[in-house]
């Protein structure tokens, strides 16, 4: 066996050279690429494939985008406004405007109130849906155009005026600016409570009646048989008592009582103006349900 593992110097050199060649071949196999780097690409086919991929991406993006349906911008909430791209300041301006019981009746007015950018307005405006009486208002004919079936704009005396609590929808529609929709709203509001209107001022609570139209109505009608109401003493009323008054909710009722404690009672309706978030534009209506008498 010893003779098989005994090598001469030449044989050892040959074996060493062979090992070196094996190592070189292994390195060449792992580190040298024998493939051609040039790849033939069909540019037309590649362009068509890229175009198809882009179109599929656009379809997917469009499918993921929330669908917007027509809506009345007066009822935009925080979530709705944010999803439409409005920032918090723009939404707050709209909510503050609506809190005054005012209404937005045009795209231009929406931008004036919220101060949204032109680009955002152009994206939102196509989805605005205003009431029909705004988009298709009834023509306001001049006095010279009035027929015998319409009232003139000339104010009548108290004796000549008709009772607003007994007026029919047909009679109200004779007033300039009042159509079927508005007359139905007036009747519906009147019938919400037994006895109808307390005073003409309540017409301001009917949605859609502008000051001009209200003036036209009160030129021909007035409340002659007011609903009887029991007034609350603002200085003894509880929260549950106060929330029965129109335009007073629980938050406002609590604020009124807190202010009442600080002032040791109210002496007049004007002092209610100091209450936080008090609806100043509704103060005359709220006053109908209150009287001021301090506890002894």
Give me the oligomer status: single chain
Summing up helix and strand content along with how strands pair, one would put the structural category as mainly alpha
Low-confidence stretches: 141-148
How many individual helices? Answer: 13
What is the H/E order? HHHHHHHEHHHEEHHHE
Cα shape:
elongated
CATH topology (fold) name of one domain: DNA polymerase, domain 1
Q: What can be said about the biggest beta sheet?
A: 2 strands, parallel
Percent helix among the residues? 40-55%
Please give the radius of gyration in angstroms.
41 Å
Instruction: Please give the CATH class of one domain.
Output: Mainly Alpha
Strand order of the largest sheet: 1-2
User: Beta-strand percentage?
Assistant: under 5%
Mean pLDDT: 84
CATH homolog superfamily of one domain? Photosystem II 12 kDa extrinsic protein
Number of strands: 4
Q: Tell me the distance between the termini.
A: 132 Å
